[in-house]
Design goal:
Structural class: alpha+beta
Shape: globular
Radius of gyration: 18 Å
Strand order of the largest sheet: 1-3-2-8-7-6-9
Length: 301
């Protein structure tokens, strides 16, 4: 039933793309010019972050290894704690297909493009962005991918920000963009960093969208607790014989910590199995940073 409900919601979102904006969505603004100091302030922050202390890292490695030994497929996670400056990555290596998580990268590029042009998003762009993030609308995502210059445009934007291990998909295949969790944490960092290139109003707009996703799409890193702004991706990948890619990224405010987290996975036999894996990995990773599990609440609710 979970899978059927999510797929029905996705179909409904696609069919509604051309019908305009979503009631209650926050307005997009561009009240400050884009700033890209030396490749991106947020990218610098991530690269200079301290590593999780050895004992805590070993304990978290062990907990994740034990859990994932009994799970199908491959899973990796990255966390940056903005409160303490500590970061952690587990089982990165080969990149993962992003599926709809790529929509966060597209949103970032769109906002920065508008800022370079010293303008707000127009009504049509807001309508597309609202449905792309809140309802994971694929047609709206494609329209915005075209608007930002497709593969070449997104690649240029990410490289300027220091996100260099992400490879956008060609043509309509933006969902085949390949990346690793640490790069997606960098994307989240750029999108939400008060000292980064995204204006304050656009940061609020992006977080507003990510904290008001459709209820049947609010699984994933939200299971780790706290106030959450997220985006998930799911896809039965033809490249993997129809096995499922299940991904979740987001910002969590939990136990007095501000955490940026990305969990990417592939080759789950079905969607519910992949969701369970991603949620458990997120929970273990957050517990490794906070030692606590908070109640799940959406930002702004």
């Amino acid at each position: 039933m979970l899978l059927r409900g999510i797929l029905l919601a996705l179909v409904a979102g696609v069919s509604g793309c051309a019908n305009g904006g979503v009631a209650g969505a926050p307005p997009a603004m561009a009240d400050a010019p884009e700033r890209l100091p030396g490749g991106g302030a947020a990218a610098i922050q991530v690269s200079n972050a301290a590593q999780l202390p050895k004992a805590a890292r070993q304990s978290l490695d062990l907990a994740l290894d034990r859990y994932l030994q009994g799970r199908p497929g491959r899973t990796a996670v990255s966390v940056q704690d903005r409160t303490t400056g500590v970061q952690y990555a587990f089982h990165e290596g080969q990149p993962f297909m992003l599926a709809s998580v790529a929509k966060v990268d597209i949103l970032l590029a769109l906002l920065l493009q508008a800022q370079r042009e010293h303008r707000q998003l127009d009504a049509h762009e807001r309508a597309l962005a609202d449905r792309m993030i809140r309802y994971s609308d694929n047609e709206c995502a494609h329209d915005l991918y075209v608007a930002i210059g497709r593969q070449a445009g997104l690649t240029r934007t990410l490289h300027r920000l220091g996100v260099r291990d992400t490879y956008p998909g060609a043509g309509r295949f933006w969902g085949s963009t390949r990346s690793n969790p640490s790069d997606q944490v960098k994307v989240l960092g750029v999108l939400t960093d008060p000292d980064g290139p995204v204006s304050a109003a656009n940061r609020r707009y992006a977080l507003g969208l990510m904290s008001s996703v459709a209820p049947d799409q609010a699984w994933g890193v939200s299971a780790a607790g706290g106030k959450v702004a997220l985006k998930n991706g799911w896809l039965p990948a033809e490249a993997h014989g129809g096995l499922w890619t299940i991904n979740s990224v987001g910002r969590l405010l939990v136990a007095d910590h501000e955490l940026l987290i990305a969990v990417l996975s592939e080759r789950s036999p079905d969607m519910p199995t992949g969701i369970t894996t991603v949620e458990r990995v997120a929970g273990l990773a957050v517990k490794g940073f906070t030692g606590a599990r908070a109640h799940v609440t959406a930002l702004g609710r």
